[in-house]
Structure prediction request, 314 residues.
Amino acid sequence: MKKILYIRTALSLMSIALLSSCLKDSKYTVDFTKTTPLVELPGAANVSGNAGTFEVVGLLASSAPSPFNVAVNLAAPQPLSKAITVKLSVDAAALTAYNTANETSYTLLPTADFTSSLSVTIPAGQNLVNLVVNVETSKLDPTQTYVLPLTITDGGGIQISNYKTILYQLTVKNAYDDTYTETGYKFHPNPASCHALTGSIPVVTVSAVTSNTAVGDLGGSGYSFNFDVSSSNALENWVPEGATPAASSFLISDDTGTTTYAPSDGSGAQPGTAPYVQTTYNNTYDPAAKTFWMHYGYFGGTGLRDFYVKLVAQ
Prediction:
């Protein structure tokens, strides 16, 4: 493979040399300054594979608008001596065509959930500018996958390129959304079921302040819970998801580290003794270390299942 690439490169260089020689000796020359200027969305030229042009944009869930940039380019040998205004529009038909071709069901981003001028001026002497789109992430339904399809509709007197349409899939994440390394301990009425917790566990976005994660080591069984991170980084409003554990049996410690119950692992060992110190697992988030400290439990048929969990962002 290396030999083939080398030969192709050598032939290409030889061809360029011959072409250059011919141009010097011929009255015919290639004048690239005569190339027709085009306006384009350069991101559309860099994506291939699926029908249509598709990009994923990660946004931070927030009560304030979350911006992202749409690059608009003037493809020309030299910048123009005058400014041009390029206009875009939402192309719902492009999303419909994409969904049909790829058997997807992405939702068109509602016009009420974003703001943008959909118009941008490329100043004289420049080629590339950004159109800003501000998305109201707090209004988005986390169960939906939203797409904003944009296309150039007016090149400001300049010809529009074939690379004029792009579809932006909006992925909204809060500041806590990540994969975490889990360590900790699980206590159980049956001593044989008490064990250390290790492995990787996701914390996923529900809203700007609400996240969801697995109950201890029960993620594989589909048991999870929602929780909020307050302005003081305390964990609040714990809501179990799924049939088990039931909300009525789900217990957490308070924010000071003093538990609302006195759990035991069933073998006589108390989680409150070293190395299971309750004041460490005090249901807080450390933003500097991107670390959660959690203490929670739930009642099963044989008694309390008690978890002390530390989650560190990977």
Notes: The two ends are 38 Å apart (CA to CA). Helices lie at 2-25, 92-102.
